Amino acid sequence: MQGNLTKFRVISLTLAIWCANCSAQADAGSVDTVKTVAGLMGISKVDRMRIDSVTFTVQLAGYDFDKLYGLRYLYYTESGSRDRPSGRVLMEDFIGGASDTPSIALYDFRKGRPEVVQITDKLDVENVRWRPDAVLLEVDDQWYEFKRGKLSRLN
Predict the structure, then answer these.
(1) Where is the signal peptide (predicted)?
(2) Of 17, 83, 104, 117, which residue is least crowded by CB atoms under 10 Å?
(3) Distance of alpha carbon 101 from its chain centroid, rounded?
(4) Residue 53 belongs to some domain of the structure
């Protein structure tokens, strides 16, 4: 009995640490906001799908800086909390639907103006870890590093 309790505590602690380091948010209806170090980032559903197939626009201070084409999206914030401003946001845009791999972009707000860096459209991210100079992406129990504009597989 004591062994099972210890095992339960270890598993609970591991899950708590993992959940504290990873915060993913899915699309939240017609408008979603994210606190960033440069101000509030807004994600708004367009009223009617436009001719260019845009379904969501992403804004900072009322100005569009990116467009999402999928019917849904998922994002990971560097801060790990909706209450704290984030310097970077990883955005997954499910352009081909839930069954296709999403298009992944990194939004960097640390210099004030949002910088949008396309990462890949070939990976379905399961987990994200943040480093000061890189982003680690877990896909099928394999880790990848995105650093200085390059995506590389870690051994």
Answers:
(1) 1-26
(2) 83
(3) 14
(4) yes
- Split at pLDDT 50, 70, 90, the class of 26 is low
Q: How many domains does the chain have?
A: 1
36 in the Ramachandran plot: left (φ > 0), alpha (ψ -120 to 50) or beta?
beta
pTM of the predicted structure, to 2 decimals = 0.78
CA distance 137 to 153: 9
How is residue 78 annotated by DSSP?
Answer: S
Give the SS3 label for residue 107.
strand
Asked, for residue 16, whether it belongs to a domain, the answer is: no
* 60 domain residue, yes or no: yes
DSSP-assigned letter for residue 86? B
3-state SS, one letter per residue, for 37-73 = CCEEEEEEECCCCCCCCCCEEEEECCEEEEEECCCCE
Give the residue numbers spanning the domain of 61: 24-121
Q: Do the domain assignments include residue 101?
A: yes
Could you read off the pLDDT of 30-80 as tens digits, one per residue?
Answer: 679 999 999 999 999 988 766 678 999 999 988 999 999 998 999 999 998
